[in-house]
Design brief:
Radius of gyration: 15 Å
Structural class: mainly alpha
Largest sheet: none
Order of helices and strands: HHHHH
Keywords: Membrane, Transmembrane, Transmembrane helix
Helix content: over 70%
């Protein structure tokens, strides 16, 4: 039952990030590079940490594999969102996705399958996406 819900969380997070990207892609010319850098940092960091915690909850003894996957996901998301704006933002998203991707499975392992922590991380993730969409709209 828990694994089904965790798979649902992966899918929900992927769809939420995809909608945010499509929204930002339409208005990317209106967003300044400061906000663009903050967007790249926040999205790459939150996606990496949510993915790392969810994957380590799903596969608790695959530390190295989960760390590699989470780092790659964080880097890819950082590069994709950073590329919306400029090269410096791309590099910032890359580095942030790398660092958070390396740390996220450690945080998930330290939480030791605490569902309250997973709920907390998920609420922060969704709130962050709404905050980004709101700030991008009112820039």
């Amino acid at each position: 039952m828990i694994n089904d819900n965790i798979v649902f969380l992966h899918l929900f997070n992927l769809i939420a990030v995809l909608f945010l990207y499509l929204y930002l892609f339409k208005i990317r010319k209106l967003i300044g590079f400061h906000l663009g850098m903050n967007i790249s940092l926040m999205v790459s960091g939150t996606v990496a940490i949510v993915t790392g915690v969810i994957l380590i909850y799903q596969f608790p003894f695959e530390f190295v594999f989960i760390t590699i996957i989470t780092t790659i996901i964080g880097i890819i998301i950082g590069v994709i969102f950073g590329a919306l704006f400029d090269y410096q933002t791309l590099l910032t998203g890359y580095i942030n996705g790398l660092m958070i991707g390396l740390m996220a499975p450690m945080i998930g392992a330290a939480a030791s399958l605490n569902m309250m922590f997973l709920l907390f991380i998920e609420i922060i993730f969704i709130f962050s996406l709404f905050l980004l969409a709101f700030s991008a709209r009112h820039t």
